[in-house]
Design goal:
four-stranded antiparallel beta sheet, alpha/beta, globular, 13 helices, eight-stranded mixed beta sheet
Length: 516
């Protein structure tokens, strides 16, 4: 039986030809659906992993028969986890096993047709990840080009500025909560972190480094290590009492590794019973158009499993405005993946200016004024409208169909009103939804701490709660700005939810009060 959603648009494969050398090795992950996940979401109460596997796991006979089938076909089982078979084989073996023909162009490869599996297992498969290597993930960060509105005489925002502006409760610091930060070949320097914490009187937090696949922390020696440095410095500064875990996975030597690395890191963190994170933050993404839909569905299935355990995943909505990233087929309106995953909280960006007393003087949607980015947002063409968005008026562009709206929430992200960061022994200013996502992770750590103090659990699937609060004083409604970018007209900020800032930025004290 054929599985849908594993082929890429023809515009991405225009120069591909049948793969000549099929003796090379390929690693794929076959991701299974949990059974009756909707019932878990309807109740929306955290359960243990043991309870979840007992009540919603794949039937033993399906699992056993699939194992026997792939082994018989010649694929090597590298490991089996709760809902994933990690398989390795030659391109020839993979093609014969799944009924595929592989195409190639240089180092890139992709299937020309949909994979086939036996009928007994087809209904259980969310997607097969790793069949192509066309898409790459990118961190969503930017540097300022105009400095006149940077806070603190051009130094950028300090942690206390953000706490004051968004009204963080002074009695909460994230104690008792564990936040996971997912990074991909992106390290950090302990000396940079210490310099940042010392400069802003941040108590040295609990920080653990976990290598998902053997990838080391490179010590923040590369330019791209700015991403991990930004994530860790700002998440820890805004919730210094929380425990933080950096989950490091390889970015890979080929693009194919990105899709499998994201899945691998998500699965590792969600099933990490040693550190037990309740919040995950991801600052990477690229236009969903560049991923096979099955890859996005597999990621979302894993994120959904996390919500069942009380884990919330936040993802930067991107910095390319409404068009994601240009493709060989031209410019198109896109949302980014994995931000488009409906079980993830997508975090957009604003432009923030403060009064001398620290209160907000102006906050608008992050709008492109210097070809340096805009808040990622729009309408998914992969995922349908989720139930929590049924009651809002989603914008529809000609030639597109309605789907999951992005983002859900927002926070300051414009690099021209960016954040101070200590990096490689110097100070700089950085912006992007890469900053907004870990900041929101810290905010949810405060919410979780408050609920724990009241002997309440926090559901991982928080979107229904956030959307119930939408349009209330819990959020600062952003009504000015747009995310036009790259010559494409995107979306405008409006009253209520919009595809630039979602429901807007939080009034954190009110968010905490409403949630308990």
């Amino acid at each position: 039986m054929k599985l849908s959603g594993h082929t890429l648009p023809e515009s991405l494969k225009s120069d591909f030809r049948p793969k000549h050398d099929i003796s090379g090795s390929v690693t794929v992950a076959v991701v299974f659906h949990p059974w009756n996940l909707g019932a878990v979401e309807a109740e929306n109460k955290p359960m243990t992993r043991e309870e979840f596997l007992k009540d919603h796991g794949v039937p033993d006979d399906v699992w056993r028969l699939f194992r026997e089938w792939v082994t018989r076909e010649g694929m090597i089982i590298e490991r089996e986890t709760a809902f994933v078979f990690w398989l390795r084989g030659t391109f020839d073996t993979a093609a014969k096993t799944f009924g595929l023909e592989f195409l190639e162009s240089g180092d890139r490869f992709a299937p020309s047709n949909e994979p086939s599996v036996p009928g007994f297992v087809a209904p259980w498969i969310a997607g097969i990840v790793g069949l192509d290597n066309v898409a790459s993930l990118y961190p969503s960060l930017r540097y300022p080009r105009h400095t006149e509105e940077l806070a603190n005489q051009g130094q950028g925002f300090f942690p206390q500025d953000i706490k004051t502006a968004y009204q963080f409760p002074v009695n909460l610091n994230g104690t008792g909560v564990t936040v996971g930060i997912l990074e991909f070949s992106n390290g950090y320097s302990d000396s940079d972190l210490q310099a940042f914490w010392s400069a802003f009187n941040v108590p040295t937090p609990s920080l653990t480094f976990v290598s998902v696949d053997g990838t080391p922390n490179d010590g923040g020696t590369q330019a791209y290590d700015m991403e991990a440095t930004l994530d860790v410095e700002w998440a820890t500064a805004l919730a210094p009492g929380a425990n933080f875990v950096v989950y490091e996975a390889s970015a890979g030597s080929t693009d194919q590794s990105f899709a499998t690395s994201v899945l691998n890191a998500l699965e590792y963190a969600i099933y990490d019973t040693e550190n037990n994170p309740t919040i995950l933050s991801i600052s990477y993404g690229v236009a969903e158009f560049r991923f096979a839909p099955a890859v996005l569905r597999a990621w979302d299935s894993m994120i959904a499993q996390g919500t069942s355990f009380g884990i919330t995943t936040l993802v930067a909505s991107g910095d390319q405005g409404a068009y994601g990233r240009r493709t060989p087929g031209g410019s198109h309106l896109h949302v980014d993946g994995p931000a488009a995953c409906p079980h993830a909280v997508a975090v957009g960006g604003t432009h923030l200016v403060l009064n001398p007393n620290g209160s907000i003087a102006e906050e608008t949607g992050w709008t492109d004024v210097d070809n340096n980015g805009a808040s990622g947002g729009g309408i998914s063409q992969v995922f349908p409208v989720p139930n929590y968005q049924n009651h809002i008026a989603l914008p529809l562009k000609p030639g597109y169909r309605l789907g999951r709206g992005v983002p859900d929430v927002a926070l300051n992200a414009d690099p021209n009103t960016g954040y101070a960061v200590a990096f490689q022994g110097s100070w700089t200013v950085v912006g992007g939804t890469s900053a907004a996502a870990p900041a929101w992770a810290a905010i949810l750590a405060l919410v979780t701490q408050a609920r724990q103090q009241s002997n309440l659990t926090t559901p991982g699937f928080v979107q229904p709660l956030l959307y119930d609060m939408g349009g209330t004083p819990v959020f600062r409604d952003i009504v000015q700005g747009n995310n036009n970018y790259g010559g494409l007209v995107g979306y405008s900020c409006t009253v209520g939810w919009d595809a630039v800032t979602g429901w807007g930025s939080p009034v954190v004290g009110r968010l905490v009060a409403e949630w308990i």
